[in-house]
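Following up on my earlier thread - several people asked me to post the actual chain instead of describing it. Fair enough. Here it is, all 283 residues.
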Amino acid sequence: MIKLGLPNKGRLSDKSLELLKQAGFQIQTKDRKLSAFCENFMMEVIFVRAGDIPGFIQEGIIDLGITGQDLVEEKGVAVEKILELDFGQAELVLAVSKDFDKEQLFLKKLKIATSYPKITLHFCEAQGMNADIIDMSGAVELAPKLGLSDAIVDLTSSGETLRMNDLLPLMTLFKTKACLFANKEKARSERKRIDQMVMAFQSVLMAKNQKFLIANLPKMSLGDLAAIVPGLSGPTVMSIVGREDLCAIQVVVHEREMTEAIDQLKKLGASGILVTNIEQMVP
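Reply from S.P.:
Thanks for posting it. Predicted structure:
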């Protein structure tokens, strides 16, 4: 049985559970429950701190885990990245107070508060910055206001928290997102089962923002169809019983292109247009 670690709270927790549900894994979760079994796959889900997941994977306590690339980088663990996901995007930035003299950035010894001391130290050494790193576990953005530091290194996705605390981002240290990571040994011994999970996850990622369009179209307009809705491998065309002049088409269209596609299809004489959601697309 595979043991999968998921964040028990924070920015990645809900999205991770949602991905499992969309991929078809039936897991019953309750508040404060530390683990749960999947009803239709040989898997146990373990809920732990996102920052503990990289180390747990390396040590073999869990086989797989969803967590941020930033945490794996900070922990410096030897784990295998299996799949990049489509949530948890953020940047690790160096930020200062708006009244900070930026010319002093490389001229004075800075005090930098952060929850990412290793990444910050490596960055400062690479940039030739003289800095004392202050390791903080939370509320890093308050450090300059409290006089604890000249600058901070912290994660930001929208920049709103920085703006609320009158902080200005100057440099990006690291770009991160959620990923599925695996223990290196388990990545080999449990390859078949892991590949099944990856295929399920990929099917959800591929289906995101895609729609399934069905319509009736005059056969005389088929020559213009591919230019309007190319689809993944071209539109599917089928005969309609009793209609020699019409055919049925099926095609996958990105939602941002749907309005234009429908308009162009109507100009070709399409009728009976139906658009539905796609839950999964198996690559």
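The domain at 90-176 is CATH 3.40.190.10 (D-Maltodextrin-Binding Protein; domain 2). That should answer part of your original question.
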